[in-house]
Amino acid sequence: MIPVLDGAQLRARVGVDAAIAALRHALLSGAVATGGPARVTTPVRAGHLLLMPAEDPTFVGVKITGVAPANPDRGLPRITGTYLLHDAATLQPLAAIDGAALTVLRTSALSALAVAELAAPRASRLLVYGTGPQAAAHIRAVAAVRDLDDVAVVGRTPASTARFVRRWDGEPGPRPATADDVERADLVVCCTSSSTPLFDGDRLAAHATVVAMGSHTLDARELDAVTLRRATVVVEDRDTALREAADVAAAVRADPPHRLLTLTDVVEGAPVDPDRPRVFRSVGMAWEDLAVAAVALRH
């Protein structure tokens, strides 16, 4: 029997700092092909299944993820799944990992890595859209790379926001957002599956850093055209972003010279204009799962 790691065991083996370090190493070493195979999406009655394979010189991994939009109304997670890690030379299975927990960990760690590279050093005011597991993980991950004085949260409804705030058991404790928090925010993190923009890009401070995490469906539109037009836009991989990030693809079509930086560019020291907003638009890629899963196995 191969070891099976549930979410608690994964988090015990890999903290957010270790996950950030693993992702940074993967980008700088070139050990992981950041383009990689396109994810395979298969519609099923309850939603869709995603198949995401990746390899490095030591390991081969594949995540099978279920996305079930109706699950939250049943009191169940929207994202399910399993990650299988294999030896690269023999393809012998080595471990199975809770895929949903791995997704939350690697996504929030990648966002924190982007914040560490892009955000003003003294950025301390965070505005988060969303009240699910990703929102909670992103608050903790961002707090690992910036000293946060204020965390404001916007949920789908006032009730969901209030429940999120009441359930919080750590520091910094979030509060319900007010109307002027977009203008005040140093950091804006979007953790939703929204198909319409979450805020007016004209209201965004020039020094702000925005993270729109992990949306890979072509109807996702957390960011408006104004935000993307004003900002320096950073993505994991250009071809993947143009294929899977509809808001980024639309911005490039509207303004063909629009330059997309990759996160590798930024980690390697590419200059970023401090006088305009910075956006990290993630779609979530298989190499990220592999980089973090490998740390869990080596623990």
Note down, in words, how this protein is organized.
The protein has 299 residues and is α/β, with parallel strands linked by helices. Helices cover 35% and strands 24% of the residues. The chain is built from 11 helices and 14 strands. The chain has helices at 7-13, 16-29, 99-118, 133-143, 158-167, 181-184, 225-230, 238-244, 246-254, 263-267, 286-298, and strands spanning 4-5, 40-44, 47-55, 59-67, 79-87, 93-98, 125-129, 150-154, 175-176, 187-190, 209-212, 232-235, 260-262, 278-281. An 8-stranded parallel β-sheet has the order 9-8-7-10-11-14-12-13. Helix 4 links the parallel strand 7 (125-129) and strand 8. Helix 2 packs across helix 3. The protein is globular, with a radius of gyration of 18 Å. The two termini are 18 Å apart. 44% of the residues are buried. The model has no long low-confidence stretch (mean pLDDT 91).
For this entry, give a set of tags.
single chain; 299 residues; eight-stranded parallel beta sheet; six-stranded mixed beta sheet; 11 helices; 14 strands; globular
Question: Sheet with the most strands?
Answer: 8 strands, parallel
**Gap from first CA to last CA:** 18 Å
Residues in β-strands, percent: 15-25%
Q: What is the number of helices?
A: 11
Strand order of the largest sheet: 9-8-7-10-11-14-12-13
**What is the average of the pLDDT values?**
91
Q: Would you tell me the structural class of the helices and strands?
A: alpha/beta
User: What is the number of strand segments?
Assistant: 14
Helix content: 25-40%
Runs in which pLDDT lies below 50 for 5 or more consecutive residues are none
